[in-house]
Amino acid sequence: MRKKQIEEAYSLLKQIGIVRSESEFAREWLGKSESYLRCMRVKGTQPSDGAVAVCAARMQALAGDLARDPLTAAQSSAVLRVAYTMREQVLGAALDAA
Question: What pTM did the predictor assign?
Answer without folding.
Answer: 0.89
